[in-house]
Design goal:
Blueprint lengths: L2 H16 L19 E5 L10 H16 L2 E5 L7 H10 L4 E5 L4 H10 L4 E5 L8 E6 L1 H15 L4 E6 L4 H17 L4 E6 L6 H13 L4 E5 L1 H13 L3 E6 L10 E7 L1 H14 L8 E4 L6 E3 L9 H16 L8
Parallel strand pairs: 1-2, 1-3, 3-4, 4-5, 5-11, 6-7, 6-8, 8-9, 9-10
Antiparallel strand pairs: 10-12
Helix pairs in contact: 2-9, 3-4, 5-6, 5-10, 7-8
């Protein structure tokens, strides 16, 4: 199915299934929902159907709805709607908490937070000094270190690749962890690095992957959203291996994806929302950080290949050393 059609189908299905339970944040009259915690979320640029970041955050909110009875609304950018517009709409709906997904929404969130100082915000993947903005960040470098070690174990050409979405500090954490994990297993292994400049272009990701594979890389790790999906699928066409990101992306390219670096945005969003609700509309921590120890990042099940016993032991030991702090990833 073409992506745009698939995206519309996914969104339509989600709305159909959840329409009776998901409510807009604003209400002018008393209703059975009036006493429930109301969450609004401004999604990242690709939006629902990205099979990655936005979908994961949405799952976290659905879990909070199903298990704790919160209600929520969401906004996406389009040719007619900017991040500024989305945040203003959510603020006017009197949400108890407004979530902004991705570092690219920071400027618009801070603008809205200054205009609505009594409104509480939650920024994911960045931090802010404003008192009414809490934040969630991840130790992507820890999970990416394990992805790099796995890539080195899987490579048959001693040559692997990394594709980043945009050249930004948060993606540098993925790159640094991956490169250092590769070098921990094989200091002499070649690592290609390329940035696509976009999170939403599958064709571009496929083109970059094709080039990398042509130059000898046989395992490609993507931190590029839907652009990365194209790279994963290109790996299948060339008999190469790939490592997905954010969600378990095995089903995107079943013959290529040996694992995915799980950035458990759903877990973090769920925990933060429940914390917010239990603390009477406040966060116990202003800046929340999720790593391997907190189940914030990690590897999805290893498929397609089978590690030898000593390789699995090494991977397990590396994980424990990251958790204990014996290994720390150096981030430029």
């Amino acid at each position: 199915m073409h992506f745009q059609g698939r995206k519309k189908w996914i969104i339509g299905l989600i709305l159909l299934v959840t329409a009776a339970l998901i409510s807009g944040c604003g209400t002018e009259q008393a209703s059975p929902l009036s006493d429930k915690t109301k969450i609004g979320i401004m999604l990242s640029d690709v939006g629902l159907g990205d099979q990655s970041f936005s979908d994961a955050a949405f799952r976290g909110l659905m879990k909070a709805r199903d298990e704790n009875g919160i209600i929520f609304d969401y906004k996406e950018i389009s040719k007619d709607k900017t991040y500024d517009d989305g945040f203003e709409e959510l603020a006017q709906e009197n949400c108890d908490l407004i979530v902004g997904l991705g570092f690219m929404v920071k400027d618009s969130m801070e603008k809205s937070a200054k205009q609505h100082p009594d409104q509480q915000f939650l920024l994911i993947d960045e931090t802010s000094d404003l008192p009414n903005i809490a934040s969630i960040t991840f130790k992507e470098e820890e999970g990416s270190f394990l992805a790099g070690a796995l890539a080195a174990m899987a490579s048959r050409t001693n040559h692997v690749g990394f594709i980043g979405g945009v050249d930004a500090p948060v993606i540098h954490k993925f790159q640094a962890g991956f490169e250092q994990g590769v070098k921990m297993v094989d200091p002499d292994m070649a690592v290609d690095v390329k940035y696509a400049g976009d999170f939403g272009k599958a064709d571009l990701g496929a083109s970059i992957a094709k080039q990398m594979i042509g130059e000898g890389a046989d395992v490609i790790y993507t931190a590029a959203g839907f652009t990365g999906v194209g790279a994963l699928q290109e790996a299948v066409r060339h008999g190469a291996y790939a490592i997905g990101v954010d969600s378990d992306q095995y089903f995107v390219a079943e013959k290529a994806v040996i694992s995915s670096m799980m950035k458990n945005v759903d877990v973090a969003v769920y925990k933060a929302v429940i914390d917010f609700e239990k603390n009477g509309g406040k966060f116990a921590e202003q800046h929340m950080v999720f790593g391997l120890m907190d189940n914030g990042v990690g590897l999805a099940p290893i498929r397609v290949i089978s590690l030898m016993q000593h390789e699995q032991k090494q991977l397990d030991e590396l994980k424990q050393k990251l958790v204990s702090g014996e290994i720390t990833v150096q981030i430029p």
